[in-house]
Specification:
The chain is α/β, with parallel strands linked by helices. The chain contains 13 helices and 13 strands. Strand 1, helix 1 and strand 2 form a beta-alpha-beta unit. Helix 1 crosses helix 9. The longest helix is centred in the first third of the chain and has 15 residues. The mean pLDDT is 92.
């Protein structure tokens, strides 16, 4: 059955992947909210039931009548910093959810970030206290959304490190840094670090979102999903990058927290309280991270070799 689906932040990296997959692989009626339609690089003319809405989250009330008719809202729009961060990420996002009809709307897929969670999957108090504006705003929204009428229908997804982007999609922030890793690999390969994390590609996020759209969680099913491939350690990353680039590792020097502090002092690196906390925390990993494979679907980007290849890093 065709659904009326709203996607906010459709012109962003993740928004592009989600919009493209919903356009190409479903027949749902789509409403794509973007500030600047020129930044939307996907073909929205392939079928008639796709509408590009030019608008801003700060003026979301302009779409109040439309919001009452939406069956599924996919909320990827976010402000990464600056004066508008809390207004967009908290106030306007909650307003949008409040304007949905809790009787009609069957699901809200709300994008948070795994940075606000501890290893146990519970909210991390430090994220709300010393996080960046972006992290604190996501923490605030996470705390407040449970008070909404539509709260029982909200599926919250927590992406881990996001890779993605190509000629027709904006690159994620972390993807733009990959050439630097390749550039300094001759130094990095001799370091050993204690740390681990998950990553997820925009295409795999889109696959999970499309599955959730077509298969909304029923009563009692999990509605908080950390999006990430299998946990990978910092040392495994170095080893896999070296293998991809054909670099040998002859020896490795352990990079301790103490040594890192010495480097910070020597090079006069400015570090915020949140950065220091992340250095100490080191293991941003979660027991039940999900990827398309968790739902019996195929993963698009599963290894660091996949990441490097898809990001255009030459061997």
């Amino acid at each position: 059955m065709s659904k009326r689906i709203l996607v906010t932040g459709a012109s962003g990296c993740v928004g592009h992947y989600i919009s493209e997959q919903l356009i190409q692989e479903t027949e749902h009626e789509l409403f794509l909210l973007v500030r600047n339609p020129d930044k939307l690089k996907i073909n929205t003319n392939v079928r008639s039931n796709i509408t590009v809405l030019q608008g801003d989250m700060q003026e979301i009330e302009k779409f109040a009548d439309l919001l009452k008719t939406i069956d599924v809202a996919v909320l990827t729009a976010t402000a990464w910093g600056g004066d508008i961060t809390f207004d967009v990420n908290v106030t306007k996002t909650l307003e949008l959810m409040n304007m949905l009809d809790p009787e009609r709307c069957e699901q809200v897929i709300y994008f948070s970030t795994a940075s606000v969670l501890g290893n146990d999957g519970e909210p991390l108090k430090e994220a709300g206290e010393i996080g960046t504006d972006y992290v604190r705003s996501k923490y605030d929204c996470l705390m407040k959304k449970s008070q909404l009428k539509i709260a029982p229908k909200v599926t919250t997804v927590f992406p881990t490190f996001v890779f993605g982007g190509d000629a027709n999609k904006p690159y994620s922030h972390i993807t733009t840094g990959l050439p630097e890793v390749a550039k300094y690999i001759d130094i990095i390969r001799f370091l050993k670090a204690d740390g681990s994390f998950h990553f997820i590609h925009g295409q795999d996020i889109a696959t999970v979102v499309k599955h959730l759209v077509n298969n909304p969680p029923s009563a009692g099913q999990e509605r908080s999903l950390v999006l990430g491939q299998t946990r990978i350690t910092a040392n495994q990353v170095i080893e896999q990058v070296c293998a991809y680039l054909g670099k040998k590792i002859l020896f490795r020097i352990p990079l301790s927290f103490g040594l890192a502090n010495v480097i910070i002092v020597l090079f006069r690196i400015q570090m915020a309280a949140w950065d220091r906390f992340c250095m100490k925390y080191r293991h941003f990993t979660y027991k039940n991270a999900v990827s398309p494979k968790s739902f019996g679907l195929s993963n698009y980007c599963e290894t660091m070799s996949d990441v490097l290849r898809l990001s255009g890093v030459k061997r």
